[in-house]
């Protein structure tokens, strides 16, 4: 076939496709009016009986029937909290620090008695934990306290 014959066949095919599309669009825009014929056969309408709804109660079961044995979780017993009795510190006054070649000594008055302590030393259950020029930290009967320079 020559090029002209193929071109004519393709033009005819395109015209047919566009004709079908145009016909469908025209059919949707202008629908046919249908004449309804009233039905002469009247059927009897049977009313359905209304059933009462059943109310269900769901009970909670703690045991799963598919697990076999019932395993109870151990209950935790509440521990009684120890009430910490307030520790009465004896009257302690920090007077200052004495420094000499990597050694630090702290002047502390305990119950009116002036003592010179180094870090780690203890007098009458009072242990010196740490200190600097401004304050010292002491330990007495399980409690720590910071005493500032007076």
**Tally of separate helices:** 1
Helix coverage percent: 10-25%
Tell me the overall shape: elongated
As a percent range, the share of strand residues is: 25-35%
What is the topology, as strand order, of the major beta sheet? Answer: 4-5-6-7
Q: What's the N-to-C terminus distance?
A: 120 Å
Rg, please? 52 Å
The helix/strand series, from N terminus to C terminus, equals HEEEEEEE
Residue stretches low in confidence (pLDDT < 50, at least 5 long) are none
Return the structural class: alpha+beta
- Mean model confidence by pLDDT: 85
Query: What about the largest sheet?
Result: 4 strands, antiparallel
Give the strand tally.
Answer: 7
Transmembrane segments: 7-29
Organism: Tenacibaculum larymnensis
Keywords: Membrane, Transmembrane, Transmembrane helix
Protein name: Type II secretion system protein GspC N-terminal domain-containing protein
Using brief descriptors, characterize the structure shown.
alpha+beta, elongated, 150 residues, four-stranded antiparallel β-sheet, three-stranded antiparallel β-sheet, 1 helix
How would you summarize this macromolecular structure in one to three sentences?
With 150 residues, this protein is α+β, with helices and mostly antiparallel strands. 18% of the residues lie in helices and 28% in strands. The chain is built from 1 helix and 7 strands; from the N terminus they run H-E-E-E-E-E-E-E.
Question: Care to describe what's here?
Answer:
There is one protein chain. The protein is of the alpha+beta class. It has one helix at 3-29, and strands spanning 92-100, 103-110, 113-117, 122-123, 126-131, 135-140, 143-148. The strands form 2 sheets. A 4-stranded antiparallel beta sheet has the order 4-5-6-7, with no helix packed on it. It has a 3-stranded antiparallel beta sheet with strand order 1-2-3, with no helix packed on it. A hairpin with a 2-residue loop joins strand 1 and strand 2 (103-110). The longest helix is centred in the first third of the chain and has 27 residues, at 3-29. The protein is elongated.
């Amino acid at each position: 076939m020559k090029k002209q014959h193929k071109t004519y066949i393709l033009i005819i095919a395109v015209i047919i496709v566009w004709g079908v599309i145009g016909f469908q669009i025209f059919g949707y825009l202008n629908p046919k009016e249908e004449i309804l014929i009233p039905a002469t056969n009247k059927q009897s309408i049977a009313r359905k009986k209304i059933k009462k709804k059943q109310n269900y109660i769901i009970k909670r079961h703690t045991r799963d029937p598919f697990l076999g044995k019932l395993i109870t979780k151990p209950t935790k017993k509440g521990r009684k909290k120890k009430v910490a009795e307030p520790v009465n510190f004896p009257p302690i006054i920090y007077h200052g620090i004495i420094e000499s070649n990597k050694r630090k000594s702290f002047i502390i008055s305990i119950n009116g008695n002036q003592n010179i302590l180094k870090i780690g030393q203890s007098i009458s259950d009072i242990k010196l934990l740490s200190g600097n020029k401004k304050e010292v930290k002491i330990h007495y009967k399980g409690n720590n306290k910071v005493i500032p320079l007076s």
